[in-house]
Protein backbone atom coordinates (compact mmCIF):
# COMPACT_ATOMS: atom_id res chain seq x y z
CA UNK A 1 0.00 0.00 0.00
CA UNK A 2 2.81 2.37 0.91
CA UNK A 3 4.57 1.68 -2.39
CA UNK A 4 1.38 2.28 -4.38
CA UNK A 5 0.76 5.65 -2.69
CA UNK A 6 4.33 6.82 -3.20
CA UNK A 7 4.39 5.57 -6.79
CA UNK A 8 1.24 7.53 -7.65
CA UNK A 9 2.56 10.67 -5.95
CA UNK A 10 5.86 10.21 -7.81
CA UNK A 11 4.03 9.90 -11.16
CA UNK A 12 2.18 13.15 -10.52
CA UNK A 13 5.28 14.95 -9.22
CA UNK A 14 7.17 14.06 -12.41
CA UNK A 15 4.40 15.55 -14.56
CA UNK A 16 4.34 18.69 -12.38
CA UNK A 17 8.11 18.91 -12.71
CA UNK A 18 7.80 18.94 -16.49
CA UNK A 19 4.99 21.52 -16.51
CA UNK A 20 6.18 24.00 -13.84
CA UNK A 21 3.08 26.18 -14.10
CA UNK A 22 2.67 26.23 -10.30
CA UNK A 23 6.31 27.09 -9.56
CA UNK A 24 5.56 29.98 -7.19
CA UNK A 25 2.51 28.58 -5.44
CA UNK A 26 3.99 27.30 -2.16
CA UNK A 27 7.03 25.63 -0.63
CA UNK A 28 6.25 22.32 -2.35
CA UNK A 29 6.98 23.39 -5.92
CA UNK A 30 10.42 25.01 -5.52
CA UNK A 31 11.45 21.86 -3.63
CA UNK A 32 9.85 19.64 -6.28
CA UNK A 33 11.47 21.51 -9.17
CA UNK A 34 14.89 21.25 -7.57
CA UNK A 35 14.91 17.50 -8.28
CA UNK A 36 15.09 15.49 -11.49
CA UNK A 37 14.19 12.16 -9.89
CA UNK A 38 12.28 11.49 -6.68
CA UNK A 39 13.27 8.95 -4.06
CA UNK A 40 10.73 7.69 -1.53
CA UNK A 41 12.21 10.14 0.97
CA UNK A 42 11.77 13.03 -1.47
CA UNK A 43 8.08 12.18 -1.88
CA UNK A 44 7.64 11.90 1.89
CA UNK A 45 9.26 15.32 2.35
CA UNK A 46 7.05 16.91 -0.32
CA UNK A 47 3.97 15.35 1.26
CA UNK A 48 4.72 16.81 4.69
CA UNK A 49 5.69 20.15 3.20
CA UNK A 50 2.25 20.37 1.53
CA UNK A 51 -0.40 22.28 3.50
CA UNK A 52 -3.25 21.10 1.25
CA UNK A 53 -4.17 24.62 0.13
CA UNK A 54 -5.38 23.11 -3.18
CA UNK A 55 -4.40 26.10 -5.29
CA UNK A 56 -2.37 23.89 -7.63
CA UNK A 57 -5.37 21.64 -8.30
CA UNK A 58 -7.64 24.48 -9.43
CA UNK A 59 -4.87 25.99 -11.56
CA UNK A 60 -3.96 22.68 -13.20
CA UNK A 61 -4.90 21.89 -16.81
CA UNK A 62 -4.21 18.17 -16.35
CA UNK A 63 -6.86 17.26 -13.79
CA UNK A 64 -9.67 14.82 -14.70
CA UNK A 65 -11.04 14.30 -17.30
CA UNK A 66 -7.54 14.77 -18.77
CA UNK A 67 -5.69 11.51 -19.30
CA UNK A 68 -3.01 12.55 -16.78
CA UNK A 69 -5.73 12.72 -14.08
CA UNK A 70 -3.64 14.85 -11.71
CA UNK A 71 -4.80 15.44 -8.15
CA UNK A 72 -1.57 16.31 -6.37
CA UNK A 73 -3.20 17.54 -3.13
CA UNK A 74 -4.91 14.17 -2.66
CA UNK A 75 -1.85 12.14 -3.62
CA UNK A 76 0.35 14.02 -1.16
CA UNK A 77 -2.31 13.90 1.58
CA UNK A 78 -2.44 10.12 1.32
CA UNK A 79 1.34 9.79 1.43
CA UNK A 80 1.44 12.23 4.35
CA UNK A 81 -1.03 10.25 6.45
CA UNK A 82 0.70 7.00 5.55
CA UNK A 83 4.06 8.44 6.64
CA UNK A 84 2.66 9.40 10.05
CA UNK A 85 1.34 5.88 10.46
CA UNK A 86 4.60 4.24 9.36
CA UNK A 87 6.84 6.32 11.59
CA UNK A 88 4.65 6.36 14.70
CA UNK A 89 5.20 3.91 17.55
CA UNK A 90 3.20 1.80 18.16
CA UNK A 91 1.79 1.69 14.62
CA UNK A 92 -1.60 0.01 15.27
CA UNK A 93 -2.73 2.97 17.37
CA UNK A 94 -1.87 5.44 14.62
CA UNK A 95 -3.73 3.45 11.97
CA UNK A 96 -6.80 3.42 14.19
CA UNK A 97 -6.98 7.05 15.31
CA UNK A 98 -5.88 8.74 12.07
CA UNK A 99 -8.87 7.33 10.21
CA UNK A 100 -11.61 6.69 12.80
CA UNK A 101 -13.31 9.51 14.63
CA UNK A 102 -15.31 6.92 16.57
CA UNK A 103 -12.10 5.57 18.10
CA UNK A 104 -11.26 9.06 19.35
CA UNK A 105 -14.74 9.41 20.86
CA UNK A 106 -14.36 6.04 22.59
CA UNK A 107 -10.96 7.07 23.97
CA UNK A 108 -12.58 10.24 25.29
CA UNK A 109 -15.21 8.23 27.15
CA UNK A 110 -12.45 6.09 28.67
CA UNK A 111 -10.60 9.26 29.69
CA UNK A 112 -13.73 10.55 31.43
CA UNK A 113 -14.18 7.24 33.23
CA UNK A 114 -10.58 7.21 34.46
CA UNK A 115 -10.79 10.70 35.86
CA UNK A 116 -14.17 10.09 37.51
CA UNK A 117 -12.65 6.97 39.07
CA UNK A 118 -9.57 8.92 40.21
CA UNK A 119 -11.63 11.64 41.89
CA UNK A 120 -13.64 9.01 43.75
CA UNK A 121 -10.88 6.52 44.59
CA UNK A 122 -7.94 8.88 45.22
CA UNK A 123 -9.73 12.06 46.17
CA UNK A 124 -7.91 14.70 48.17
CA UNK A 125 -6.58 14.94 51.67
CA UNK A 126 -7.35 18.64 51.71
CA UNK A 127 -6.72 21.62 49.55
CA UNK A 128 -8.37 24.59 47.90
CA UNK A 129 -10.24 24.85 44.64
CA UNK A 130 -9.70 21.90 42.31
CA UNK A 131 -7.29 20.33 44.79
CA UNK A 132 -10.21 19.81 47.13
CA UNK A 133 -11.47 17.25 44.59
CA UNK A 134 -8.19 15.68 43.42
CA UNK A 135 -4.89 16.36 45.14
CA UNK A 136 -2.02 18.10 43.40
CA UNK A 137 0.23 15.06 43.77
CA UNK A 138 -2.43 12.82 42.24
CA UNK A 139 -2.78 15.16 39.25
CA UNK A 140 0.99 15.14 38.73
CA UNK A 141 1.11 11.34 39.00
CA UNK A 142 -1.61 11.03 36.32
CA UNK A 143 -0.59 13.73 33.88
CA UNK A 144 3.23 13.66 33.98
CA UNK A 145 3.42 10.22 32.30
CA UNK A 146 0.52 11.14 30.00
CA UNK A 147 2.55 14.13 28.80
CA UNK A 148 6.04 12.61 28.68
CA UNK A 149 5.27 9.26 27.04
CA UNK A 150 3.64 10.83 23.94
CA UNK A 151 6.63 13.18 23.63
CA UNK A 152 8.91 10.13 23.58
CA UNK A 153 6.76 8.55 20.88
CA UNK A 154 6.83 11.75 18.78
CA UNK A 155 10.61 12.07 19.16
CA UNK A 156 11.03 8.46 18.04
CA UNK A 157 8.74 9.08 15.04
CA UNK A 158 10.52 12.26 13.98
CA UNK A 159 13.87 10.48 14.13
CA UNK A 160 12.51 7.95 11.62
CA UNK A 161 11.16 10.75 9.45
CA UNK A 162 14.44 12.66 9.53
CA UNK A 163 16.35 9.58 8.42
CA UNK A 164 13.98 8.94 5.49
CA UNK A 165 14.13 12.52 4.16
CA UNK A 166 17.94 12.54 4.52
CA UNK A 167 17.89 15.34 7.07
CA UNK A 168 21.17 16.91 8.15
CA UNK A 169 22.35 18.27 11.52
CA UNK A 170 20.05 21.17 12.37
CA UNK A 171 21.51 24.66 12.59
CA UNK A 172 19.81 27.42 14.55
CA UNK A 173 19.24 29.38 11.33
CA UNK A 174 17.28 26.44 9.87
CA UNK A 175 15.05 26.25 12.94
CA UNK A 176 14.54 30.02 13.00
CA UNK A 177 13.40 30.09 9.36
CA UNK A 178 11.03 27.16 9.94
CA UNK A 179 9.50 28.70 13.07
CA UNK A 180 8.91 32.00 11.28
CA UNK A 181 7.14 30.26 8.39
CA UNK A 182 5.06 28.18 10.79
CA UNK A 183 4.20 31.18 12.98
CA UNK A 184 2.94 33.16 10.00
CA UNK A 185 1.23 30.12 8.42
CA UNK A 186 2.97 31.34 5.29
CA UNK A 187 2.17 28.31 3.16
CA UNK A 188 -1.56 28.73 3.78
CA UNK A 189 -1.32 32.06 2.00
CA UNK A 190 0.28 30.33 -1.01
CA UNK A 191 2.86 32.06 -3.17
CA UNK A 192 0.58 34.90 -4.22
CA UNK A 193 -0.35 35.78 -0.62
CA UNK A 194 -4.10 35.84 -1.33
CA UNK A 195 -4.93 32.74 0.68
CA UNK A 196 -5.85 29.23 -0.35
CA UNK A 197 -8.71 27.45 -2.11
CA UNK A 198 -9.57 24.97 0.61
CA UNK A 199 -13.26 25.68 1.10
CA UNK A 200 -14.52 27.32 -2.07
CA UNK A 201 -12.88 25.93 -5.20
CA UNK A 202 -11.06 28.62 -7.17
CA UNK A 203 -11.97 31.53 -4.85
CA UNK A 204 -9.02 32.56 -2.70
CA UNK A 205 -9.65 32.92 1.02
CA UNK A 206 -7.61 33.62 4.16
CA UNK A 207 -10.20 31.86 6.36
CA UNK A 208 -8.25 28.62 6.80
CA UNK A 209 -5.06 30.52 7.61
CA UNK A 210 -6.76 32.67 10.27
CA UNK A 211 -8.50 29.64 11.78
CA UNK A 212 -5.19 27.80 12.01
CA UNK A 213 -3.72 30.86 13.72
CA UNK A 214 -6.53 30.82 16.28
CA UNK A 215 -6.06 27.11 17.01
CA UNK A 216 -2.27 27.24 17.15
CA UNK A 217 -1.98 30.33 19.33
CA UNK A 218 -4.93 29.22 21.46
CA UNK A 219 -3.16 25.94 22.16
CA UNK A 220 0.15 27.68 22.87
CA UNK A 221 -1.57 30.07 25.32
CA UNK A 222 -3.16 27.12 27.14
CA UNK A 223 0.21 25.39 27.29
CA UNK A 224 1.80 28.63 28.55
CA UNK A 225 -0.88 28.82 31.26
CA UNK A 226 0.05 25.38 32.57
CA UNK A 227 3.77 26.08 32.27
CA UNK A 228 3.57 29.39 34.15
CA UNK A 229 1.43 27.81 36.86
CA UNK A 230 4.05 25.06 37.25
CA UNK A 231 6.84 27.61 37.66
CA UNK A 232 4.77 29.62 40.15
CA UNK A 233 3.98 26.48 42.15
CA UNK A 234 7.44 24.91 42.33
CA UNK A 235 9.65 27.96 41.80
CA UNK A 236 7.92 30.59 43.91
CA UNK A 237 5.68 28.60 46.22
CA UNK A 238 2.57 30.31 44.82
CA UNK A 239 -0.12 27.65 44.78
CA UNK A 240 -3.47 27.52 42.97
CA UNK A 241 -6.17 28.69 42.87
CA UNK A 242 -5.04 31.85 41.08
CA UNK A 243 -6.99 35.06 40.59
CA UNK A 244 -8.42 36.26 37.28
CA UNK A 245 -5.60 38.74 36.65
CA UNK A 246 -2.87 36.16 37.21
CA UNK A 247 -0.86 34.96 34.20
CA UNK A 248 -2.17 31.37 34.37
CA UNK A 249 -5.77 32.59 34.24
CA UNK A 250 -5.20 35.24 31.56
CA UNK A 251 -3.31 32.82 29.33
CA UNK A 252 -5.74 29.98 29.99
CA UNK A 253 -8.97 31.90 29.37
CA UNK A 254 -7.75 33.68 26.23
CA UNK A 255 -6.26 30.43 24.93
CA UNK A 256 -9.46 28.51 25.67
CA UNK A 257 -11.56 31.05 23.78
CA UNK A 258 -9.27 30.96 20.73
CA UNK A 259 -9.09 27.18 20.81
CA UNK A 260 -12.88 26.73 21.09
CA UNK A 261 -13.73 29.24 18.37
CA UNK A 262 -10.92 28.06 16.09
CA UNK A 263 -11.87 24.38 16.31
CA UNK A 264 -15.56 25.14 15.78
CA UNK A 265 -14.74 27.22 12.72
CA UNK A 266 -12.39 24.54 11.38
CA UNK A 267 -15.04 21.83 11.72
CA UNK A 268 -17.47 24.00 9.73
CA UNK A 269 -14.80 24.79 7.14
CA UNK A 270 -14.05 21.12 6.57
CA UNK A 271 -17.75 20.53 5.92
CA UNK A 272 -17.51 22.95 2.97
CA UNK A 273 -14.33 21.47 1.52
CA UNK A 274 -14.08 18.85 -1.20
CA UNK A 275 -13.05 15.58 0.47
CA UNK A 276 -11.66 14.22 -2.79
CA UNK A 277 -8.86 16.82 -2.72
CA UNK A 278 -7.54 15.45 0.55
CA UNK A 279 -7.29 11.99 2.06
CA UNK A 280 -10.93 10.77 2.21
CA UNK A 281 -10.07 7.89 4.55
CA UNK A 282 -8.73 10.31 7.17
CA UNK A 283 -11.73 12.66 7.17
CA UNK A 284 -13.44 11.03 10.15
CA UNK A 285 -10.23 11.01 12.17
CA UNK A 286 -9.60 14.69 11.34
CA UNK A 287 -13.07 15.73 12.47
CA UNK A 288 -12.79 13.62 15.62
CA UNK A 289 -9.49 15.27 16.53
CA UNK A 290 -10.79 18.79 15.85
CA UNK A 291 -13.83 18.17 18.05
CA UNK A 292 -11.65 16.68 20.81
CA UNK A 293 -9.30 19.67 20.80
CA UNK A 294 -12.24 22.09 20.76
CA UNK A 295 -13.85 20.22 23.65
CA UNK A 296 -10.67 20.60 25.71
CA UNK A 297 -10.94 24.38 25.33
CA UNK A 298 -14.70 24.53 25.85
CA UNK A 299 -14.73 22.28 28.93
CA UNK A 300 -11.98 24.41 30.47
CA UNK A 301 -14.01 27.58 29.97
CA UNK A 302 -17.15 25.98 31.40
CA UNK A 303 -15.17 24.74 34.38
CA UNK A 304 -13.86 28.25 35.01
CA UNK A 305 -17.36 29.77 34.71
CA UNK A 306 -19.00 27.21 37.01
CA UNK A 307 -16.04 26.38 39.22
CA UNK A 308 -17.67 27.74 42.35
CA UNK A 309 -20.89 25.73 41.95
CA UNK A 310 -21.75 22.18 43.09
CA UNK A 311 -21.13 21.06 39.48
CA UNK A 312 -17.40 21.67 39.85
CA UNK A 313 -16.28 18.09 40.72
CA UNK A 314 -18.07 16.59 37.71
CA UNK A 315 -16.89 19.38 35.39
CA UNK A 316 -13.32 18.95 36.64
CA UNK A 317 -13.39 15.23 35.86
CA UNK A 318 -14.81 15.91 32.39
CA UNK A 319 -12.20 18.57 31.59
CA UNK A 320 -9.26 16.59 32.95
CA UNK A 321 -10.55 13.50 31.14
CA UNK A 322 -10.53 15.36 27.83
CA UNK A 323 -7.03 16.73 28.51
CA UNK A 324 -5.78 13.25 29.41
CA UNK A 325 -7.27 11.82 26.21
CA UNK A 326 -5.73 14.60 24.12
CA UNK A 327 -2.26 14.07 25.57
CA UNK A 328 -2.30 10.31 25.14
CA UNK A 329 -3.57 10.51 21.55
CA UNK A 330 -1.24 13.31 20.43
CA UNK A 331 1.16 11.01 18.49
CA UNK A 332 -1.71 9.11 16.85
CA UNK A 333 -4.04 11.88 15.68
CA UNK A 334 -3.87 14.92 13.40
CA UNK A 335 -2.02 16.73 16.21
CA UNK A 336 1.12 14.98 14.97
CA UNK A 337 0.99 17.03 11.77
CA UNK A 338 2.32 20.10 13.57
CA UNK A 339 5.55 18.30 14.47
CA UNK A 340 6.01 16.80 11.00
CA UNK A 341 5.25 20.07 9.22
CA UNK A 342 7.83 21.89 11.34
CA UNK A 343 10.37 19.14 10.58
CA UNK A 344 9.57 19.44 6.86
CA UNK A 345 10.05 23.22 7.00
CA UNK A 346 13.40 22.76 8.74
CA UNK A 347 14.48 20.30 6.04
CA UNK A 348 13.33 22.73 3.35
CA UNK A 349 15.34 25.51 4.99
CA UNK A 350 18.39 23.23 4.80
CA UNK A 351 17.75 22.64 1.09
CA UNK A 352 17.55 26.38 0.42
CA UNK A 353 20.73 26.99 2.42
CA UNK A 354 22.56 24.32 0.41
CA UNK A 355 21.41 25.90 -2.86
CA UNK A 356 22.56 29.36 -1.77
CA UNK A 357 25.97 27.99 -0.77
CA UNK A 358 26.41 26.36 -4.20
CA UNK A 359 25.59 29.64 -5.90
From TrEMBL:
First and last residue of the signal peptide: none
Record field: transmembrane: 101-118, 138-158, 214-238, 250-269, 281-305, 311-332
Coiled-coil ranges per UniProt: none
Alphabetic keyword roster: Membrane, Transmembrane, Transmembrane helix
NCBIfam families: CitB
Protein name per Swiss-Prot or TrEMBL: Tricarballylate utilization protein B
Classification lineage: Bacteria, Pseudomonadati, Pseudomonadota, Alphaproteobacteria, Rhodobacterales
Amino acid sequence: MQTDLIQEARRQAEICNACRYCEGYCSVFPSLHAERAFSDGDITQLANLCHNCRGCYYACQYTAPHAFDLNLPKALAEVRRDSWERFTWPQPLARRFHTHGGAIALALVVGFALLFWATRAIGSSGGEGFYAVLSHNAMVAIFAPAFLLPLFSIAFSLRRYWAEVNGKPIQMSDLTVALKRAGKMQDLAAGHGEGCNFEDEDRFSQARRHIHHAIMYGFLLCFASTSVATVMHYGFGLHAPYGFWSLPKLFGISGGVLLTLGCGAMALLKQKSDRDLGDPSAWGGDIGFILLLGFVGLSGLVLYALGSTPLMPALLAIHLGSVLTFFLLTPYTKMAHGFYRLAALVRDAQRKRDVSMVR
